[in-house]
Design goal:
The structure holds two protein chains of two kinds. By secondary structure, chain A is an alpha/beta fold. Chain A has 16 helices and 14 strands. Chain A has an eight-stranded mixed β-sheet. Chain A has a six-stranded parallel β-sheet with strand order 11-10-9-12-13-14, with helices on both faces. In chain A, β7, α7 (about 175-185) and β8 form a beta-alpha-beta unit. In chain A, α2 (about 75-85) runs antiparallel to α3, α9 packs across α13 and α11 (about 300-310) packs across α14. Chain B is mainly alpha-helical. The model of chain B is unreliable at about 1-5 (pLDDT under 50). Classes of the chains: A alpha/beta, B mainly alpha.
Chain lengths: ~400, ~160
Amino acid sequence: MRLAFVVQRYGTGIAGGSEGHCRELAERLRSRHDITVLTTTAKDYVTWENAFPAGPSTENGVRILRFPVARQRRIKLFADLSDEVFDGTAAAERQQEWFRENGPDAPGLMEHLRTHGRDYDLVLFWTFRYAPSYFGLPLVADRSVLVPTAEEDPAIDLSVLHEYFDKPAGYIFMTPEEQDLVSSRALHPLRHAIVAGIGLEPVPLDVTPRAPIDALSIPRDYLLYLGRVDRNKGCDALLENFQEYAATRPDVTLVLAGPAKMQLPDHPQIRALGYVSDQVRASLLAHARALVVPSWYESLSIVLLEAWNYGVPALVNGRCKVLAGQVTRANGGLYYMFPAEFDEAADYLLTNPAQRDAMGRQGLSYVDREYRWPTVISRVESLLHDVQRHAPRVRHSPPAGVVASAIS
Amino acid sequence: MALAGETEVPVDTVMSELQGRVRERLRAQVLASGGPSQFEDPALFADVEALLHAAASTPDSAKLILPELLGEPDTWRLTTSMRYQSHRAKAPASLIMFLKRYVLMPMFRWLYEYSRDNFERQRRTNHVLFACLQELALETAQLRREIRRLSGDRQ
């Protein structure tokens, strides 16, 4: 099949869940399909500043077509607009303005979809929240597959999404919870849809050395948080919960591995490592008593799957349906809704080694069952063929007026 | 040793044990701080906790009855976003809005964000309270219906 993958940023050095998912699928499907990645020249997801050269290029065998970003994101204006539309009373025009301000604004990409979109058998779009997906998908709706990566954040409640979520010919979801969330916002039952998630390569167990973390004097009993240390990731609540818990457990340490975007308390049982090397990261994951995921909003927690890949159980924020659902389906850890439950659950994992190890093993079995690449790719392939076979096709480009209203 | 694929430790079972312990701890604290003596009954406390827990877990997007009955949202709903408006004629209004947006707002953004975060918490609390009231009203209505049915049976 001739496939186009539309994503806001693309490249090996680009961190980001949806961008990584898009890249992994492009690289793994390229031997079976003719794939072109349609993206922007941006590297920074906050400013969308042009960083890559525009035009065609190839990376790891994948053809890329990059389009320049017309203007950088106006951060303060966007923040004010977000406040306005998330208030719940904003008109449809203001909500569409939010998608436009969220960017990246790449007129060339829209023009390419309008003029060449029907040259592709299918066009896959990553992440509903960015302008290329929101305004681009309606231009090729009859052959579009949306990978929404939707979370239960305020953006999902925008009323303009009811109509938008009705448009794609197919959907690839990360979890059953995400599928339920998007289904509940669409006007009609979703057409072809699968829960695919992302694949992980197996790691050899019990051989990852402790030396890299011994060098950092990381103690034996530690809970691990991995990722950006940010209020938006629930880290403020995690730090409060942990400090309360640590008052009765002086032998336990919380290790934070990731760049800090908030002020951290000066506490003897909290170790903030900042960015860590791949070696340290692997060692931290392999030897943690449990991984803590305090986030409120997730479409799929990849770091949770990584911990299970090492046979390490997890302690997650139960208010996030996706996290609680993942942990329950896998029997791979515990969840908490409030501080007292955090205490009990952390204590259980730290003081019951047999049960803790069993939960880690159960998590690993779940990853083996659901999240290995051959399984994920086979699900995606089957969806692509279903959509291509069954989706009704518009043979001609839509009238200019329709296109103009979709992108204006 | 468990066979491959067999669940040795079911999360649901462990969670319900942990939640039971947390509930008992909370009950002891409520009683120790002078809470209602009816909470001496652990089963009753569990019922109350379950009811409030369900209400407190109501998603933000859930439609509730009470807010609809309060009438025009502008008269009671917390507005957490800033609107740049002026009642003056077009030219002075543009100037005033320009000053508000590009001179005053950058100076006072920290204060605005502090207030907005607090308003947002209050908005969330209101939503939960509305949900709790709805849950209690529903329980009361069902109990009334049940009492009417039982007294009808007796007559």
